[in-house]
Amino acid sequence: MNEYLTSESKIAIVTGGASGLGYAIVEKFVQNNIRTIIIGRDEEKLKKAKNAFGELCSCISFDLNKLEQIPNLVNDIVKEYGKIDILVNNAGINMKKPFTEVTDDEFQRIILTNVNAVFSLSREVVNVMLPQQQGSIINISSMASQYGLPKVIAYTASKSAIEGMTRAMAVDLSPEGIRVNCVAPGFIATDMSAKALNNDPERKNKVLSRTPMGKLGVPADVAEAVYFYATDAAKYVTGTVLPVDGGNSIGF
Fold this sequence. Notes:
- Belongs to the short-chain dehydrogenases/reductases (SDR) family.
- This is SDR family NAD(P)-dependent oxidoreductase.
- It is an enzyme of class 1 (oxidoreductase).
- Its EC number is 1.1.1.-.
- The chain contains 8 helices and 7 strands.
- The chain has helices spanning 20-31, 43-53, 70-81, 104-132, 153-173, 191-198, 201-209, 219-230; strands spanning 11-15, 35-40, 57-61, 86-89, 135-140, 178-185, 241-244.
- It has a single domain (7-187, 218-243), classed as 3-Layer(aba) Sandwich (Rossmann fold), CATH 3.40.50.720.
- Strand 2 (35-40), helix 2 and strand 3 (57-61) form a beta-alpha-beta unit.
- It has 252 residues and is of the alpha/beta class.
């Protein structure tokens, strides 16, 4: 491994790391000797992931919507591991529904999980990183923030907020040695997306026809981008949004 990519004894938190893109990110981290703590709600999925990843991985079952409990969560992690070097805000929820049918409660629920929880967890982790004078925060956005997608108004609002927050956080925190960046995945072949696209051939054809590379990405593609941001390879990179989308966001 290149000297500047060494990540010995780094401590990372990955939210929603027990499945999909998060799982691939954790896999990449653990393979590169980064001790990774997965935070998620599904205990069964967490245990499976822990068993798959081995001793460099630990899991905490926690509902990030309980904002008032996040400070204690972070305190407990620091007590056990001594520090936090990397935070990946990957957990998020989506809802597909016509604009006029989305209720206030539904909209609020997606903003709570995708924006408020990201803010609260980031704030608490930053308070740990500040005395260290170093750290890397990677937020996960989406194609929904790059252009308009039908029937995902709340999700789109939340991911647009994440990209704005990434830039604002980077300006506040980079002078303190904490870099903040964002990965915007395009259409990635996961169980969830496969189910959605395979049941909707018209949407699948549209996705592929406007993706210059002509194919879906794989979760490892996103994991590679996140890993780059997490390491010293990106030591002079902050406040950026990197689409990992086969050209979809610029496709015609």
